[in-house]
C-alpha cells in the first residue's frame, strides 16, 4: 500500500484532531452523566499528546501516535463494526489510509503486497482542480459541482476485481489560507468557471501550498461491484462493435458479478426460420458450449431436456450445478454430454429475448461444480437488458449486411425463401470477415409443385394500335392545314411534295396499322417537318402562334397523345387493381402453408407459385397443402375476374380480360439465376413447364379459330386424366357455392410448337360473387363433399 501525501495540489496537509478534541471539550463542559464522563476520560488520555491538537505533518510520527489516536476516534470507529465497515482516516482525494477497520485491512491484504491503491480514472489535473473547488465552495461559497463518483478497484486473493464506491466525511477538516493564498475577485471566479482545462490558470490563483488542509477526513467504502459492473457493462456495450476488446471487458464484468476468476461465457444464436441454433457470427471469440464444436444444430436435437425446452419456449433460465451428477441420472442426455466434453461442470443458460423473439442463449460456464446454480442464475436479470440490446443491435447490423449482400447479389427476395439466401449471405460475410474468398452458391429448391395463373387483358394489342391510329390521325389532320397555311412563305424549305406525302400517310391510317407505321411517321416528322416549324417560331413569323400551339400538343401530355394515354391508363388501372387483390389474398394464404410467390405485370397480371417441403423445412408438407393452394388459386382468379367486371365501365377503355390456370402435377426444381436475378425452373425436363406457360395464352381450340381463353370464363389447361379429375372436383365444389356456372367445356388445345396433347376445362364465372367473399379451404371442400354424400345416401 502506498501512503501518498499531497504532491501536486494547492494544499499543505496537517493531520489534526483539534475539531474532534473541541467537540469532547464541549461535551465535558456542558453535559452531565455518562457522556460527559466519557469525554473527560478521553481528554485525559490524550492530554500527553498535544500534537494531536496542533497537527502532524509527518506520517511516520502519525504512525507512532496510533494508539492514542485510536482511543480518540473510537466513537467514530466502533469496535463492534470493525469487521463489517470499510473505513479509514484519510484526506479528500488522497490515497494514504490510516487506522483502517479490520475489514478494510483484510481487503488490502488480499490484494497482495504489490497492489497500490488509487482512485480510478483520477489524474493529477483533476486532483488539482477538485482541490481548488473545495476551497471555492468552503471559503467563497461558490457551488462548483464536481459530484463525480469515485471508486477503488481492488482485486481479491483469487484475482477477481471488486469495485468500491468512495464516500468522504470532511466534518473534522478546515481550510486555512497561508501567506501565499491569492484573494479572488468575482471576475477571477467567473474566469476559472469557464477554464477547467487550463491548469496553469488555476495554479496562478491557487499556488502550490497556498492553503492548509487541517484536520482529518473519514473515508467509507461500500461494495458496489455488481452495480459498477452493470454500469461498466452498459458503457462498454453502448454503441460498441462487438470486437475482441469488448469481449474481454464483458467477460471481466461477469467475473466481477459472480466473483469467479475462471468464469467463461459463450453464446449460441437462434434462427427461427430454420428452427436451428448456430454460432455467433458477430464475434469469433464467442464460443458456443451448447454446440460443442458443431456449426449448427436443430432445435429438435436439443429438446431432449424439459428444462431446456422451457428455456426456448417459455424464455426461462436453465442451470445445472453438477454436470457429472446430472449425467448419472440421464446418461444419454446430449446437452449434458456436450458440456461435460468441454470440461464444464456447472452452467447457466439464459435466453436473450427481444420483443418476445428468442435471439439466442447466453452461456455462463465453470469448470467447478456448484459454482453456477439456479440461485445465482437470477443475477443474470441485472445485466440481461443491456446484453439483449447489444445483441439485438448486432443482429440488426448483421441483418443490414445480409440485406446488402442479398440486394446486391440476388435482388429482392420473397419472404418464404429468404432464409436460404440469408444462410448463404451469412457464410459470405463470415468468410470475408476472416479474409477468405467465398463465391456465393446458387440457391435451389427441389421437389416443389408449380402453379401458374394469369389475368390477361383481351385485345390489348388491337386497342393500343387503335389508340395510336386515332392520335396520329388527329396530329396529321391538324398539321396538314397548318403546313398549307405557312407553305407560301417557305416554298423551298417546304415543297408541296412533303405535304402530299403527309396526306398519303393520313390516308394509310384508315387501314389496319402496320408494325412500322407509327415509327415511320414519327421519324418523317422529326426529320423533315419539325426543324422547319421550330424555325418559324425562332423567326417570329406571323404564323408562329399557331405553330407554337401545334408543337405544344405534340408533347407527351398534349392532345396528340390523348388516346394512347387513355390506353396506358386503362392497362395501368387494371394491372394495379389486379395486383393489389392478388397480393392481399396471397398474404392470407401464406399462413396456411408458406410458399414462394412471384407476380409480374404485362398486359395483365401473371403469377407463379411454388410449394413444397424444401421451401419451408420447419413445417411438414403434405399433398393437402398443394390441393388447398390450387383451390385457393381458382377462387382468387374468379374474385379478380369479378372485380374487373365491376370496374370495367369506369375505365377509359372498357377492355375485357380473360383468366387462365396451368395445371402441372409433377414436382420440379427451381433455381435462382444469378444473371437474371430471378427464379426459373432447373433442368431440361422441367423446362417444359416454362415452354407451355409462354405459349398457351394465345392458343386455339383444336380445329377451330376460337381462342382457348374466353371473356367471362375460367380456363384450366392440363395434360393428364388425373389433373382433369382433380380440377373437376374443385369446379363442382365452387359450382355448389354459386361461384361458377354449371356447364363445363372440355376442350382439346391445338398443338403448339414443341407441345402437344394439352386439354382444357372452361367454365363460366358467376358475376354475383361478393368482392370480399372469403376463400374456401380444401378441408372445407372435403367436409362438404362428405356431407353431401351422406345426404344422398
UniProtKB/TrEMBL annotation:
Which superkingdom heads the taxonomic lineage of this protein's source? Bacteria
**Organism encoding this protein:** Mucilaginibacter glaciei
Task: Quote the protein name from its UniProt record.
Answer: GAF domain-containing protein
Amino acid at each position: 500500500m502506498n501512503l501518498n501525501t499531497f504532491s501536486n495540489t494547492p494544499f499543505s496537509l496537517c493531520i489534526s484532531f483539534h475539531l474532534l478534541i473541541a467537540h469532547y471539550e464541549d461535551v465535558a463542559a456542558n453535559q452531565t452523566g455518562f457522556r460527559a464522563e466519557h469525554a473527560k476520560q478521553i481528554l485525559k488520555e490524550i492530554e500527553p499528546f498535544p500534537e494531536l491538537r496542533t497537527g502532524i505533518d509527518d506520517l511516520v510520527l502519525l504512525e507512532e501516535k496510533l494508539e492514542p489516536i485510536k482511543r480518540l476516534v473510537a466513537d467514530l470507529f466502533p469496535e463492534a463494526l470493525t469487521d463489517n465497515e470499510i473505513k479509514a482516516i484519510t484526506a479528500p482525494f488522497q490515497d494514504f489510509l490510516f487506522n483502517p477497520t479490520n475489514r478494510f485491512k483484510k481487503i488490502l491484504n488480499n490484494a497482495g503486497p504489490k497492489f497500490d491503491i488509487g482512485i480510478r480514472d483520477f489524474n493529477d489535473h483533476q486532483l488539482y482542480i477538485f482541490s481548488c473547488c473545495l476551497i471555492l465552495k468552503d471559503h467563497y461559497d461558490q457551488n462548483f459541482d464536481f459530484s463525480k463518483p469515485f471508486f477503488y478497484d481492488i482485486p481479491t486473493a483469487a484475482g477477481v476485481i471488486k469495485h468500491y464506491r468512495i464516500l468522504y466525511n470532511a466534518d473534522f477538516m478546515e481550510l486555512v489560507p497561508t501567506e501565499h493564498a491569492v484573494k479572488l475577485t468575482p471576475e477571477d471566479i467567473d474566469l476559472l468557471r469557464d477554464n477547467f482545462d487550463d491548469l496553469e490558470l488555476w495554479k496562478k490563483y491557487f499556488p502550490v501550498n497556498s492553503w492548509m488542509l487541517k484536520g482529518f477526513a473519514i473515508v467509507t467504502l461500500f461494495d458496489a461491484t455488481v452495480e459498477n459492473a452493470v454500469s461498466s457493462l452498459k458503457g462498454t456495450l453502448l454503441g460498441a462493435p462487438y470486437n475482441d476488446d469488448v469481449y474481454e471487458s464483458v467477460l471481466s464484468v461477469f467475473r466481477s458479478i459472480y466473483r469467479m476468476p475462471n468464469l467463461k461465457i459463450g453464446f449460441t444464436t437462434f434462427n427461427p426460420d430454420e428452427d436451428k441454433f448456430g454460432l455467433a457470427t458477430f464475434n469469433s471469440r464467442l464460443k458456443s458450449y451448447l454446440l460443442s464444436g458443431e456449426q449448427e444444430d436443430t432445435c429438435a436435437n436439443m429438446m431432449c431436456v424439459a428444462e431446456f425446452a422451457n428455456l426456448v419456449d417459455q424464455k426461462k433460465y436453465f442451470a445445472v450445478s453438477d454436470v457429472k451428477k446430472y449425467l448419472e441420472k440421464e446418461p444419454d442426455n446430449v446437452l449434458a454430454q456436450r458440456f461435460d466434453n468441454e470440461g464444464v461442470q456447472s452452467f447457466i443458460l439464459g435466453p436473450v429475448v427481444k420483443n418476445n423473439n428468442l435471439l439466442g442463449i447466453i452461456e455462463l460456464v465453470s469448470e467447478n461444480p456448484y459454482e453456477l446454480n439456479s440461485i445465482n442464475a437470477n443475477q443474470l436479470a441485472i445485466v440481461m437488458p443491456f446484453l439483449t440490446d447489444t445483441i439485438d443491435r448486432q443482429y440488426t447490423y448483421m441483418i443490414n449486411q445480409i440485406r446488402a449482400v442479398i440486394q446486391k447479389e440476388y435482388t429482392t427476395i420473397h419472404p418464404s425463401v429468404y432464409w436460404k439466401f440469408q444462410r448463404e449471405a451469412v457464410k459470405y460475410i463470415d468468410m470475408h470477415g476472416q479474409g477468405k474468398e467465398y463465391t456465393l452458391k446458387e440457391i435451389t429448391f427441389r421437389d416443389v409443385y408449380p402453379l401458374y395463373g394469369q389475368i390477361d387483358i383481351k385485345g390489348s394489342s388491337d386497342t393500343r394500335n387503335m389508340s395510336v391510329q386515332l392520335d396520329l390521325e388527329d396530329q396529321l389532320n391538324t398539321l396538314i392545314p397548318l403546313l398549307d397555311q405557312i407553305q407560301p412563305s417557305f416554298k423551298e424549305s417546304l415543297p408541296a411534295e412533303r405535304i402530299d406525302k403527309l396526306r398519303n400517310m393520313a390516308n394509310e391510317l384508315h387501314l389496319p396499322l402496320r408494325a412500322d407505321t407509327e415509327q415511320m411517321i414519327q421519324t418523317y416528322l422529326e426529320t423533315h417537318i419539325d426543324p422547319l416549324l421550330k424555325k418559324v417560331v425562332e423567326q417570329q413569323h406571323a404564323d408562329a402562334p399557331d405553330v407554337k400551339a401545334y408543337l405544344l400538343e405534340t408533347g407527351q401530355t398534349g392532345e396528340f397523345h390523348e388516346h394512347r394515354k387513355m390506353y396506358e391508363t386503362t392497362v395501368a388501372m387494371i394491372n394495379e387493381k389486379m395486383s393489389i387483390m392478388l397480393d392481399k389474398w396471397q398474404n392470407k394464404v401464406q399462413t396456411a402453408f408458406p410458399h414462394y410467390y412471384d407476380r409480374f405485370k404485362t398486359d395483365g397480371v401473371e403469377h407463379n407459385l411454388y410449394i413444397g417441403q424444401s421451401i419451408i423445412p420447419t413445417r411438414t408438407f403434405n399433398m393437402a397443402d398443394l390441393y388447398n393452394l390450387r383451390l385457393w388459386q381458382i377462387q382468387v382468379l374468379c374474385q379478380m375476374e369479378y372485380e374487373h367486371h365491376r370496374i370495367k365501365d369506369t375505365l377509359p377503355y372498357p377492355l375485357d380480360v380473360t383468366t387462365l390456370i396451368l395445371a402441372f402435377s409433377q414436382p420440379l426444381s427451381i433455381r435462382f439465376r444469378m444473371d437474371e436475378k430471378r427464379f426459373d425452373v432447373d433442368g431440361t425436363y422441367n423446362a417444359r413447364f416454362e415452354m407451355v406457360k409462354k405459349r398457351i395464352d394465345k392458343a386455339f381450340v383444336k380445329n377451330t379459330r376460337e381462342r382457348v381463353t374466353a371473356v367471362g370464363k375460367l380456363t384450366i389447361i392440363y395434360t393428364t386424366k388425373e389433373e382433369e379429375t382433380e380440377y373437376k372436383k374443385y369446379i363442382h365444389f365452387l359450382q355448389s357455392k354459386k361461384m361458377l356456372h354449371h356447364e363445363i367445356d372440355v376442350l382439346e388445345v391445338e398443338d403448339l410448337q414443341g407441345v402437344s396433347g394439352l386439354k382444357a376445362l372452361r367454365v363460366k364465372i358467376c358475376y354475383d360473387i361478393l368482392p370480399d367473399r372469403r376463400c374456401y379451404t380444401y378441408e372445407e371442400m372435403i367436409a362438404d363433399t362428405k356431407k353431401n354424400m351422406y345426404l344422398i345416401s
